[in-house]
Amino acid sequence: MIRAEGISRFFGSGENRVTALSSIDLAVQPGDFLAVTGRSGSGKTTLLNLLSGLDKPSSGSVHFQGDDLADLKEADLVELRRHKIGFVFQSFGLMPLLSAQENVELPLHIGGMSWRERRQRAHEALDAVGLGSRAGHRPFELSGGEQQRVSIARALVTGPEVVFADEPTGELDTATARSIADTLAEIASSGHATVIVATHDLELAATAQRRIDLVDGEIVFQS
Q1: Which of 18, 23, 162, 211 has a CA-to-CA distance to 154 between 20 and 30 Å?
Q2: Alpha-carbon span 43 to 39, nearest angstrom
Q3: 147-196 residue pLDDT tens
Q4: How far is residue 77 CA from its own chain's centroid?
């Protein structure tokens, strides 16, 4: 699915150059649930950005289904992220004036899908995360865990092959974080999508099939 070969990422130059990642080799298979762990500043988010094509490595290469992301034009990368990749963030990122249903429909609306089809697919995505009965509620009417489930449904609604989640439990209490971890595990195990999550939450990491631990931009542990 994804292969990273010797990827490094530097910011700045000369004496001010900072190494965010150094010579990372990684292979992700279809159906994997991979947790990337490490302290703040260890390079977790940078790695996710490189694997998803949001950023480019300073050296090395990232291949997605055999294609070198560096060879793709920006329009191709946009299409890749629109159709094959889903994103879940710590801050939920929901539109406050839209219902849960409308938030989940949003990427389909942007993609030009018909009203009837996007309504059906959004309903199915909300059902998949256990929120079908809350489809008409706006974010302020939902708990933090419910809002994160809406953001997961939004990531799933386009039928992506990979879901990237950056600290998805960072703003949640322990019990709610555990339920989100279970949801992500179910997405991977059911074959809905490969899941790659960056987290400092060790309970979330424990639910993953595989784990890599980063320290100062280098892999120090891999299972």
Answers
A1: 211
A2: 9
A3: 999 999 999 999 999 999 999 998 888 888 899 999 999 999 888 899 99
A4: 16
Contacts of 70 (CB under 8 A, 6+ apart): 56, 57, 61, 62
Quote the tokens at residue 147. Answer: 């809002």
Query: 135-149 burial string, b = 16+ CB within 10 Å, else e?
Result: bebebeebebbbbbb
Reduced 3-state DSSP string for the chain: CEEEEEEEEEECCHHHCEEEEEEEEEEECCCCEEEEECCCCCCHHHHHHHHCCCCCCCEEEEEECCEEHHHCCHHHHHHHHHHCEEEEECCCCCCCCCCHHHHHHHHHHHCCCCHHHHHHHHHHHHHHCCCHHHCCCCHHHCCHHHHHHHHHHHHHCCCCCEEEEECCCCCCCHHHHHHHHHHHHHHHHCCCCEEEEEECCHHHHHHCCEEEEEECCEEEEEC
Residue 72, CA atoms < 13 Å, CB-side half-sphere: 22
Residue 173, pLDDT score: 87
Q: What pLDDT was estimated at residue 128?
A: 86
* Beta sheet of 67-68, edge-to-edge order: 18-28, 2-11, 59-64, 67-68
Residue 49 has pLDDT above 90, yes or no: yes
pTM of the model as a whole: 0.91
* Residue pointed to by tokens 């949003």: 106
How many CB atoms lie under 10 A from the CB of residue 166? 20
Q: Percent of the chain having pLDDT more than 70? A: 100
Q: What pLDDT is recorded for position 191? A: 81
